[in-house]
Design a protein that fits this description.
The protein is of the alpha/beta class. The chain has helices at 2-13, 30-40, 45-69, 82-101, 138-147, 199-208, 236-251, 266-280, 311-314, 332-339, 346-349, 384-396, 422-436; strands at residues 121-126, 154-160, 178-182, 214-218, 259-264, 291-295, 373-376, 401-404. It folds into two domains: 2-105, no CATH class; 115-304 and 332-436, 3-Layer(aba) Sandwich (Rossmann fold). It contains 13 helices and eight strands. Helix 1 (2-13) crosses helix 4, helix 6 (199-208) crosses helix 13 and helix 7 (236-251) crosses helix 8. The longest helix has 25 residues, at 45-69. The protein binds 2-acetamido-2-deoxy-beta-D-glucopyranose (4 copies). The site of one 2-acetamido-2-deoxy-beta-D-glucopyranose has 3 residues, from loops.
Length: 439
């Protein structure tokens, strides 16, 4: 049971891009699934379901899968080891399971964490942007007024390179670089806390880079919608990213040119929106960052590319997501939550929400002024096309882009320490890019 409880842990913490409604095949099954889900959320059914799930997984499913994946030809990727096949297959089942027992919807954290509870990390408060400030402007302000979003104080965490001591107030050294990380989790899960699996991305960069000494992750507000109380629609999370960027530049003293804004999965979506805001609303006190690092970015919430040749279809069996192949409902719970009171059409044509959408026309000029960008995605992931479309559009606008798509890697593979050797290889390449661009 050791292994499976560890897997469960992963799933409870893992920010998959898909939520419970992702699993709905047809709208007609909606009510049934919800009734079932709320039933399984109650004790003792919940506990019984846990036992049932793990017993069948360990004693029934895993042995069958081992048998099935023995021939290389039966594996989702012939190069994958049996171990990887099993982890990914179990992951798919666990995502279905966690959606049924509803372990996912936690409120956004709002508590301070004492330094002694953290290893190689430090807590920091990020103050919300003053609503009267000129930094609160443009599309973000317009939408915040529409959706009733305000600025709040949010938690953040510094992750320190092993052996680095926190000195004084922690002001930026001359020429020091850092990464501002927006974690993944389909806009409604995950955390910036160092124990969240997405911290394995920045922890990996700190391990391999020779110039980075610390990175910063922000606990942006998580969105929610029915059956939970609706909260934190667009642009709450982007405003929190903006507040964190302002903190790094104005309070800690980093030169914007030395900041890399990074995001994985839904965090990549937020990273693109944040950089876009800084470019579209030039302000001498808060210039755009020097670099952008995109990891398996969810760049199209409208599922606009799901034809027979799309990665949504071709890579469906080789990714961590369960469920409907090429679905128009991909990650629906996260999408509905972030939309809040906004029109559904926004996910097709709003450049802040879906910069990779096929409905977004014209695309010329959409990425003008974006900083040099490093794009990572798994060649075996469903969302691969989201990244290739972003790359095409950025290159058409003259942005300097490095692409890194290891062919047999899954969605957000940089956070999975079991995804070797691809994870460390890619982390080393990204770290070289970061170190080389050091001014
Ligand atoms: C982005 O990926 C999602 C998930 O596979 C898919 O639904 C959507 O159509 C993709 N969009 C593009 C432009 O690649
Ligand atoms: C899919 O790809 C195949 C082979 O590359 C090509 O023949 C076919 O026309 C493509 N289909 C679509 C719908 O793009
Ligand atoms: C993230 O890293 C920690 C420490 O290295 C490890 O214990 C954990 O299993 C990792 N998470 C994943 C999903 O690989
Ligand atoms: C091996 C495989 O089928 N990978 C596919 C993943 O999706 C892309 C589409 O973007 C295909 O080109 C790959 O062949």
């Amino acid at each position: 049971m050791q292994k499976s409880s560890c897997l469960l842990n992963l799933v409870q913490k893992f920010p998959p891009i898909c939520g419970e409604p992702f699993l709905l095949q047809k709208p007609t099954s909606l009510t049934n699934t919800h009734a079932m889900a709320s039933f399984l959320r109650r004790q003792p059914f919940r506990a019984l379901f846990f036992v049932y799930f793990f017993t069948t997984l360990v004693f029934f499913k895993i042995p069958i899968w081992v048998f099935r994946y023995l021939p290389h030809a039966n594996r989702p990727r012939s190069t994958w080891t049996i171990k990887r096949c099993l982890i990914i297959r179990a992951f798919q089942d666990l995502l279905v399971f966690s959606s049924k027992v509803g372990s996912v919807q936690k409120p956004s954290p709002t508590k301070e964490v004492a330094d002694k509870e953290l290893t190689n990390a430090k807590f920091a408060w990020v103050e919300g942007i003053d609503e009267g400030s000129e930094l609160f402007c443009g599309v973000l302000k317009q939408y915040a007024e529409k959706t009733g979003v305000h600025h709040v104080r949010i938690p953040g965490y510094w992750l320190l390179k092993k052996g680095t001591k926190w000195v004084g107030e922690g002001k930026a050294r001359e020429g020091e670089r850092t990464v501002l990380h927006l974690h993944g989790g389909a806009f409604y899960m995950g955390s910036a806390h160092p124990s969240d699996m997405t911290a394995n991305l920045t922890r990996g960069l700190l391990l391999h880079s020779s110039t980075l000494e610390r990175t910063f992750a922000v606990d942006y507000r998580l969105a929610a919608s029915s059956p939970h109380p609706a909260r934190n629609p667009f642009p709450a999370a982007v405003l929190d990213g903006l507040a964190a960027y302002r903190y790094l530049i104005q309070d800690v003293g980093f030169d914007p040119a030395n900041v890399i804004i990074a995001g994985d999965s839904a965090g990549g979506n937020l990273a693109f929106a944040l950089v876009r805001h800084l470019i579209e609303n030039p302000n001498p006190v808060l210039p755009p960052p020097g670099y952008l690092l995109s990891v398996s970015t969810w760049g199209d919430l409208s599922a606009s590319r799901r034809g027979p040749n799309s990665s949504a279809v071709l890579n469906a069996s080789s990714d961590i997501f369960p469920g409907v192949v090429g679905s128009s409902q991909f990650g629906r719970y996260g999408v509905v939550s972030i939309l809040g009171p906004l029109e559904g059409a926004e996910i097709e044509t709003n450049r802040y929400l879906s910069p990779a959408s096929a409905h977004l026309v014209p695309t010329k000029g959409l990425f003008k002024g974006f900083p040099p960008t490093y794009m990572v995605a798994g060649g075996a992931e469903r969302l691969l096309d989201n990244s290739t479309v972003l790359v095409e559009r950025m290159e058409a606008d003259g942005v300097e882009v490095v692409t890194d798509f290891p062919p047999d890697a899954v969605h957000d593979f940089l956070v999975f320490t079991w995804h070797e050797p691809e994870r460390s290889e890619a982390l080393r390449r990204i770290s070289r890019w970061i170190d080389r661009t050091q001014k």
